[in-house]
């Protein structure tokens, strides 16, 4: 096998005392935690768009990433040459899954038909690489935001021919995902929103977005694709407002248009923060609706107001995330996809490894902390007790809808004014720090 990362050894677990920067110090794939191996808890995936295609540019300067395997062209040959490099990266990093957009793996052709045929050619190569490596596709998606034709939206474009192009593109991206045994298919509404309401028919655009998603559900049935559909919330950037702005907005949209049974959410930490929420909030909202499907693992920067897509290193957050994933019984089709990029300064191929190793170790520590919190049971018990007035008596009657305003009015007149137990937030924050 060619070695595109000659200075990088196979990354292995060496334990917390290792000083090898190319070793896991906490992520031990086969180690059992809460009855399951670490690798099965996380189902880590790498993002083709960041690992292979992100040049690390920013609005003020060109890309810096060194990619000696890439000739810089948008040719099919170059696209095919990237495939073994990516799979070598997955192998060396010990990552079992990947995610891709159609345009990450295959370039636009000079005609629309050639664009489709490029994707089919690269899909052949991906299929072979999966077969020989055992790596799997977590989810596929279509890039409906980069090409200028989508400048005013894809499904929500005011131009119906653009809608047709988007539908055609999704059809082929779904075909590719299906052929590659993808366990899911994601819609992130890159340009599905508006720059200004002054020229926008919001209701019609929302209807059109739902039309596209219904067609995708129908097409999945037609081709026998049984993977999970996801919507990935994000409030803004690139649009001023995106219709899938946060978990609650997505759930409302899916419910309103009769799509909730077909979709779950793919939640991304940095997007949660841009929406003015914590990731924990977004996860709780999705879990409450039985709709947490998968996670794009990254983080933002509190001092920068855009989608910095940094690698997750905050153990406080990974612990909170793993607590929720453990409590919901783990991922089924989903996993932790590193939708994260290196800083522009970290331009060497080695940095790809440092970045992913750090993210995987941060989640391994988060998992162990979350498991200790669950085994210890004190948080669970505190919260259960806090709501125990609903377990019997008037509380149980409220929850079972066995009472009404008149009865509650009479009840309230007959009791002493309520006295509250302390919420003990600070005590619990101290307790949480004890587990870290
Ligand atoms: C953009 C983003 C996307 C989606 C897939 O912010 O997160 O990469 O994950 O389209
Ligand atoms: Co994402």
SSE blueprint and pairings:
Blueprint: E1 12-13, E2 23-24, E3 32-33, E4 36-37, H1 38-42, E5 44-47, H2 48-51, H3 76-93, E6 97-101, H4 102-105, H5 112-133, E7 136-141, H6 160-179, E8 184-187, E9 193-194, H7 202-223, E10 228-231, E11 241-242, H8 247-256, E12 263-268, H9 269-274, H10 279-288, E13 292-296, H11 315-327, E14 336-338, H12 349-376, H13 378-386, H14 393-399, H15 405-413, H16 425-435
Parallel strand pairs: 1-2, 5-6, 5-14, 6-7, 8-10, 10-12, 12-13, 13-14
Antiparallel strand pairs: 3-4, 9-11
D-xylulose (XUL) is lined by residues 101, 141, 186, 188, 232, 234, 268, 296, 307, 339.
CATH architecture type of the largest domain: Alpha-Beta Barrel
Number of strands: 14
Uncertain stretches of 5 or more adjacent residues? none
Using only C-alpha atoms, the radius of gyration works out to 24 Å
Tell me the name of the CATH homologous superfamily of the largest domain.
Divalent-metal-dependent TIM barrel enzymes
Mean pLDDT: 98
What is the H/E order?
EEEEHEHHEHHEHEEHEEHEHHEHEHHHHH
Q: How many separate helices?
A: 16
Helical fraction equals: 40-55%
Bound molecules: D-xylulose, cobalt (II) ion
Spatial order of the strands forming the largest sheet = 7-6-5-14-13-12-10-8
Number of domains: 2
| CATH class group of the largest domain | Alpha Beta
Query: Could you say which overall geometry the principal axes of the C-alpha atoms support?
Result: globular
**Biggest sheet: strands, sense, closure?**
8 strands, parallel
| Termini separation | 41 Å
